[in-house]
Amino acid sequence: MIDLCHLIQGTPSRSYLSTRITIVKYPRPNESVQYLGLMAERVTETLSISNKDIRDSSIRVEEAPYLSGTIVDEKRIIQCVELERLFSDERHNYLLMGEET
């Protein structure tokens, strides 16, 4: 399990009722898939979206190259995170050294 708050901000996720662990498929270079548990704060629902629903963000933050487009619906704006970029940093690469499936 990888704590996204700790990884990105340097502080552990807080124990909110909305703190959740989600399981995601992470593609490996050898075309296999690794399943990752990601803990995040304030997760209240999951969405099924298409890549065409993601708006490209023209704003780039040098300290956060893993931030990509946004999803805008009638209730909110959601910032997307590209896992490939998040784990491309050598400091975070050790997190993916687990078993491949």
Output the structural class.
alpha+beta
Question: How many separate domains make up the residues?
Answer: 1
**Quick one: overall form?**
globular
Which strand order spans the largest sheet, edge to edge or round the barrel?
1-3-2
Tell me about the biggest sheet?
3 strands, mixed
Percent helix range: 10-25%
Number of strands: 5
| Uncertain runs | none
Strand percent estimate: 25-35%
Mean pLDDT: 84
Tell me the Rg in angstroms: 14 Å
The end-to-end span amounts to 16 Å
SSE pattern, N- to C-terminal: EHEEEEHH
Number of alpha- plus pi-helical segments: 3
Layout of helices and strands, plus pairs?
Elements: E1 2-3, H1 4-9, E2 20-27, E3 33-40, E4 67-72, E5 77-81, H2 83-86, H3 90-93
Structural description of this entry:
- With 101 residues, the chain is of the alpha+beta class.
- The chain has one domain (2-96).
- Helices cover 14% and strands 29% of the residues.
- It contains 3 helices and 5 strands.
- The strands form 2 sheets. Strands 1-3-2 form a 3-stranded mixed β-sheet. Strands 4-5 form a two-stranded antiparallel sheet.
- A hairpin with a 5-residue loop joins β2 (20-27) and β3 (33-40).
- The chain is globular.
- The protein starts with a strand and ends in an 8-residue tail after the last helix.
- The mean pLDDT is 84.
